[in-house]
Amino acid sequence: MKILVLGYKGMLGTDLVNDLGGTHDVAGKDIEDFDITSASDCRDLIGQSGADVVINAAAYTNVDGCETNKTGCFSANADGVKNVALACRASGIKLVHFSTDYVFDGTKNDPYMEDDACSPINTYGSSKLKGEEYLKEISDNYLLIRTSWLYGKHGKNFVGSIVERAEKTGKLEVVDDQTGSPTYTVDLSAAVKVLIEGDHRGVFHLTNRGTCTWYQFALKILEYRDMRNVSIAPIQSTQLGNCAPRPEYSVLSCRKFADATHRTMRFWQIALKDYMASIR
Ligand SMILES: NC(=O)c1ccc[n+]([C@@H]2O[C@H](COP(=O)([O-])OP(=O)(O)OC[C@H]3O[C@@H](n4cnc5c(N)ncnc54)[C@H](OP(=O)(O)O)[C@@H]3O)[C@@H](O)[C@H]2O)c1
């Protein structure tokens, strides 16, 4: 397949190119090549790509930044998706797009299913939901993948921040009232490859298996890094003072993926251990 990855220099985009590039003819474009907020950029780039599949991993991903730059956030995460979807439709190209657990409000007590009602509680989630709505309105040939709590080698993420802060200060306070599923971008990329090669369509949830709070996640990071002398305390989200509220519970059910592909994602602890070993 000929595949075009938008946002190929991002954390997920880099792993998608690495993984898919082994089997397919993959090209990548990022902010220096085109602006997703420009309809003509998207039309020209995608129209001339000759791609069978476009993967959109470009987005405005600073969750707190979205609260202070609502226009920029909606331009990239909503209007940008509209631009890409229109360009893909005009050229008859399948579009693979990513969304987030933050489209849900976090009031459920069991894993969110693909068709559960969305009700975002922050601007990032609202912009990603608007992007989903544009995608569904414009395209009938799409794969929409919601994922959560990403970390990987090629971007700023929670694992790196915990290690850096632990090394610098030896003392951490981490929120213990938000529950989700950490997801390694390498595992996500491999699962996306399976969905693309199986020509699956529609909405899928994809995360590593199992759940934890950010505090429990941080404890495992320290354990796998052999940083046993670091002092770590659980705190409440309100003590952190972030401008964007986060859902208390944003675990996504990946049952649909398992049923469709007969595969399951690894437990988050196993994926994290692999990742920690790879960055040593
Ligand atoms: N990170 C997470 O925890 C998480 C969780 C759930 C879902 N997701 C979703 O997963 C996808 C990938 O996330 P990620 O963390 O890999 O993102 P990322 O590392 O921030 O990468 C996004 C890429 O898009 C580029 N970009 C930003 N604005 C653009 C524009 N106007 N035109 C063209 N390119 C632009 C960025 O360039 P610059 O770096 O120069 O801005 C960057 O290279 C996104 O759709 C995100 O919403 C992420």
What would you call the structural class?
A: alpha/beta
- Mean pLDDT across residues: 98
Distance between the first and last residues' Cα: 35 Å
Q: What is the CATH class name?
A: Alpha Beta
In terms of per-residue confidence, which ranges show pLDDT below 50 for 5 or more consecutive residues? none
CATH architecture: 3-Layer(aba) Sandwich
User: Hetero groups bound?
Assistant: NADP nicotinamide-adenine-dinucleotide phosphate
Order of helices and strands: EHEHEHHEHEEHEEEHEEHEHHH
CA radius of gyration: 18 Å
CATH topology: Rossmann fold
Shape: globular
| Number of DSSP helical runs | 11
Q: Could you tell me the strand content as a percent range?
A: 15-25%
What is the number of E strands? Answer: 12
Query: Which percent bin holds the helix content?
Result: 40-55%
The total tally of domains equals 1
| Strand adjacency order, main sheet | 2-1-3-4-5-10
Biggest sheet record: 6 strands, parallel
Topology:
Elements (H helix, E strand, L loop, with lengths): L1 E5 L4 H10 L4 E5 L9 H9 L5 E4 L6 H6 L1 H21 L3 E7 L22 H16 L3 E6 L2 E2 L6 H12 L1 E5 L3 E2 L2 E2 H13 L4 E4 L6 E2 H11 L6 E5 L1 H4 L14 H7 L6 H11 L2
Helix pairs in contact: 1-7, 2-4, 4-5
The structure holds NADP nicotinamide-adenine-dinucleotide phosphate.
Describe this structure in words.
- The chain is an alpha/beta fold and 280 residues long.
- It has one domain (2-156, 182-210, 250-267): Rossmann fold (3-Layer(aba) Sandwich).
- Helix content is 43%, strand content 18%.
- It has eleven helices and twelve strands.
- Bound molecules: NADP nicotinamide-adenine-dinucleotide phosphate.
- The site of NADP nicotinamide-adenine-dinucleotide phosphate (NAP) has 25 residues, from helix 1 and strand 4.
